[in-house]
Write a structure and sequence with these properties.
heterodimer, A: 114 residues, mainly beta, six-stranded mixed beta sheet, five-stranded antiparallel beta sheet, 11 strands, 0% helix, 55% strand, B: 111 residues, seven-stranded mixed beta sheet, four-stranded antiparallel beta sheet
């Protein structure tokens, strides 16, 4: 069975500061890992995904995430936060099977202080 | 491409009423999904489909039904609405083993 744990339901950083959103997963098979972003009153949008190629994955809007198998982690980072980054972020895991079902974490709300 | 579209955007139902949430995608994806999102709970999978004529239950299927008569459409049916079904509902689609594309959501309130 697969699962995802996002550490911290709410993270607040200052504009220009480093953003770090934590995600740990468990999977019995090599996982596919995703980060999605949800802006207020909108659907989810893919930020980036890991599918067993490079362990450092670059996404949209300056975000990146590093797959660390030994730590079963897939933390999301951005060097310098912008006010427009305020949103809800979801980490997700899939086993890449034919059903392509994705298990989502509970989400982390990112707030940016001026 | 419109991507994934959902109607209606908002709906208020009385307890015991029924309704259908519509979902359509124009990307020729075989895989489609229905999720519900409750505050602080992330997304829970209600039903999914791997192709026309094939549907299967997700984590929280009770109180819902689906059908998939075409590749494009995947409606979600609530037969006897209950307050516990107050939520935001998202439809998504994907190719096999790839990212899921989400619709804008339907905000449902059951009073």
């Amino acid at each position: 069975a697969q699962s995802v744990t996002q550490l911290g339901s709410h993270v607040s950083v200052s504009e220009g500061a480093l953003v770090l959103l934590r995600c740990n997963y468990s999977s019995s098979v090599p996982p596919y890992l995703f980060w999605y972003v949800q802006y207020p009153n909108q659907g989810l949008q893919l930020l980036l995904k890991y599918t067993s190629a490079a362990t450092l994955v670059k996404g949209i809007n300056g975000f990146e995430a590093e797959f660390k198998k030994s730590e079963t982690s897939f933390h999301l980072t951005k060097p310098s936060a912008h006010m427009s980054d305020a949103a809800e972020y979801f980490c997700a895991v899939s086993d890449g099977s034919s059903a392509s079902k994705i298990i989502f974490g509970s989400g982390t709300r990112l707030s940016i202080r001026p | 491409n419109a991507g994934v579209t959902q109607t209606p955007k908002f709906r208020i139902l009385k307890i015991g009423q029924s309704m259908t949430l519509q979902c359509t995608q124009d990307m020729n994806h075989n895989y489609m999904y229905w999720y519900r999102q409750d505050p602080g709970m992330g997304l829970k999978l209600i039903y999914y489909s791997v192709g026309a004529g094939i549907t299967d239950k997700g984590e929280v299927p009770n109180g819902y039904n689906v059908s998939r008569s075409t590749t494009e459409d995947f409606p979600l049916r609530l037969e006897l609405a209950a307050p516990s079904q107050t939520s935001v509902y998202f439809c998504a689609s994907s190719r096999a083993g790839d990212e899921q594309f989400f619709g804008p959501g339907t905000r449902l309130t059951v009073l």
